[in-house]
Write a structure and sequence with these properties.
Distance between the termini: 70 Å
Number of strands: 12
Largest sheet: 10 strands, parallel
Radius of gyration: 32 Å
Order of helices and strands: HHEHEHEHEHEHEHEHEHEHEHHHEHHE
Mean pLDDT: 84
Shape: globular
Number of helices: 16
Strand order of the largest sheet: 1-2-3-4-5-6-7-8-9-10
Structural class: alpha/beta
Helix content: 40-55%
Amino acid sequence: MDNDEPLEPETKDEPETEPAAQNSDETFYCEAEASVAGEKEKPGGESSETDLEIEDTEKLFTTGQRELYLEACKLSNTSVVTLELADNCIMEEGTLSLVQMLQENYYLQDLNISNNDLGLKGASTISEFLQRNTSSLLNLQLSGNNFKDKAAELFCQAFSANYRIKTLDLSHNEFSDKGGEHLGQMLALNIGLQSLDLSWNHFHTRGAVALCNGLRANVTLQKLDLSMNGFGNEGATALGEVLRLNNSLVYIDVSSNDISNEGVIKISKGLEFNESLKVLKLFLNPVSMDGATLLILSIKRNPKSKMEEIDISNVLVSEQFVKILDGVCAIHPQLDVTYKAVQGFSAKKELLLWTNPMKLIQSYADQHQITVIDFFKSLNPNGRMMMSVGDFRKAMIQQDKVPMNPYQVRELIKKLAEKTGMVNFSFLKTEKR
């Protein structure tokens, strides 16, 4: 510009430059901010008409906030797949609002509303919603909600019709034998559930038998947790019959159910014919070494057994038991039995059993000028870095490059296993020696 050219005076009527285009969310936010700024700039002495304008501005601002929040909720409805609301004092009244939200949400898959004291009315609301079978929910956690037998009847109605839910947690409630009868009916009819947690309830003989009758007809359930109830030996007898017939269950936990050797005999009879179960937890039951021996011999007598884990970790065994177990594991190398300890074992012997398995593998790798990853990959026929826990245990027991006992293999699995039941040794690439 030439220096002699006169400058044009600034005028208030000069048109303002249009702001750059923004997306709708940003515009909403800026409009709300502008309303606040305009309100702050107004002088103190205003007419009643101006006061009315201020009120209108405040209304607009409030509406803007609300609309912005609702818009955010709409956006989250398309992206949130897990909702964690445990221990939030939702109670019966809040359940209705929650269900209304679920009716409009087609993306949520995992919902945890445990420990909210939902009670019978909450159970009724949830049951009615589930019977519509319109949501995308796959996993539902309802632990610790003060549900009693009437609630079990409602859930029986819901899950006799709803096949979408795959995982259901009803632990830490107050279901008794009558509730067991309702839930047993549900299990007989449901063809969707894959995992059910009924631990820490009040099932005794009648409820246990009813649940097991339902299991005999069920063909989809894979994981069942019944720990911390009161099955007793009669319930164990019914469970043994289920194991003889059922071909879908892979995991059963009946820890702390007052099952003695008498009940274990019946369970063992079922295990002689079972071809699907991989994990059996009997921890904190009054089982002796004689009962433990019956269990492992039942696996030996079943050439088609897929059993990988038996937990009797409160049972003190003898060296004779360990010798029998070694014989069973020669036939079923994928099997791991957890017991309390071996009678008469010295501290020196136990120390030898717990020699760090990773150090043994590292030493072997160094001697043969390979990596630890190479060693693990050699165990897998396809050369990949992941394999199932059972396959990994079997491969480790059978390989002769780095001989290991079951204790050391168990420690390796603790280090390498994921919650999915797979052993993953790919992370060892990044570990420093």
